[in-house]
Amino acid sequence: MAKPIIIGAVLYDPKVSVIWDIIREFFDQNGCPCDVVFFTNYELQVKALMDGQVDIAWNSPLAWVDAQRQSKGTCRAIAMRDTDQDRVSHIITRRQGGPKTLLDLKGKALAVGAKDSPQATLIPVGLLQRAGLTPEKDFKVRRFDLLVGKHGDHIGGELEAFKCLEKGEAAACAMLDMNWERWSGDGTIDPGQFGILATTDRFDHCVFTVRKDFPKALEKKWLKVLFSMSYDNPKHREMMDMEGLKQWRPGRTTGFGPLSEAVEKQKFFKKGR
Predict the structure, then answer these.
(1) pTM
(2) Percent helix, strand and coil across the chain, each rounded to 5?
(3) CATH number where 76 lies
């Protein structure tokens, strides 16, 4: 029996174990056995990847940036979901009486998610920095540090940030486009009262990451099986619906610019976590 490929994944929700049971079964059936090691946070997962304890890491965008930082740019991004590509975050405010431009947030508060959330904190704060505003000097950051270590792979912090805006304790809040669409559609947010003040540049999200020494032949074999998963297959559809995709795509690195810039400007890795 072939030695299984070891994959690292962060257990941000109980459904993650169900997702990976379906994936593992399919890979076993297709002659490419793999196993999964679950982590409680991305920092441990990146360390395990760097130490060679896992072969492939299912990384958040921040974990990808961290892996590149630690490996001196030698890791490879090999696959991602269709929904990981070309995401944006929105700055949301009240339609009546709210700020009309980003510069109007000067002297006011922006509610954000957890300190390590790319979509709800790092990239949106980076957008305000681009506009010439300095965090904690020109505007107050009201942070909701729910599930730190999960890098925003949850909705807790973003939802609390919106509630902060709703209660009038902040002038604006930040959230991922997909959450804005979901919440303004299901009644969580009244789009008649709240609207989009500004939108970030497009960015990419999660990505399967390998070290430079991961064998290319093994990578090709693993990707062939991954890309053969189909939304038309009811079993695969169950997993894809839980994981939020309809198709696996080749990994790319062109969409991490906004996060890399934000991390650098905010000195995220230099502050200590």
Answers:
(1) 0.95
(2) 40, 20, 40
(3) 3.40.190.10
